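Homework help board

Subject: predicted structure for assignment chain

Our instructor gave us this sequence and asked us to write out the predicted structure in C-alpha cell form, then describe one feature. I got the C-alpha cells but I'm not sure how to describe them. Can anyone check?
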Amino acid sequence: MTYTEELLAKADEVIPRVTLDDFNNDSNAKVMIDVRQHEELQASGSVDGSMHVPKGVIEFRLNNNNDITFDTSIYVFCAVGIRSAIAGYNLKKVGYKKVFNLVGFQDILDQGAEKQLLN
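My C-alpha cell output:
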C-alpha cells in the first residue's frame, strides 16, 4: 500500500463522507470549502456559496480565520474526494471537531448544488 493509500484509509476512518443534504440540514455554524487548485476552479467553476482554500494551505488559512472555530462544521470537497479526505484528516489532527467530506465537485452538483463560475 502506498503512503497516499494509507493516508486516505486513515482519513476515511475519521472523516465521514456526507451528502449535500447533510450540509443543508446542519444547523451548526458551517462552511463549505473547495480544496482544489485555483486552475481547476477557473476551468470548471465551484459550488455557489463555498470558499476556496487549497488543500496545501487549509490548516494555516483556517487558523487565521476568526469566523471559523474548532466547533464550526467544516465540509470539504475536491474533484473526486481524495484531497478533501486528506484535508479533512489534517484539519481533525489540528483540532477541528466537526469535519466532513462532501467528496467530489460533480457529485455535489448532481445532488442539486448551484454552480458558480469564476470571472
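Reply (TA_rk): Your C-alpha cells look well-formed. For the description, you could write something like this. Residues 3-116 form a domain with the Oxidized Rhodanese; domain 1 fold (CATH 3.40.250.10). That's the kind of observation they're looking for.
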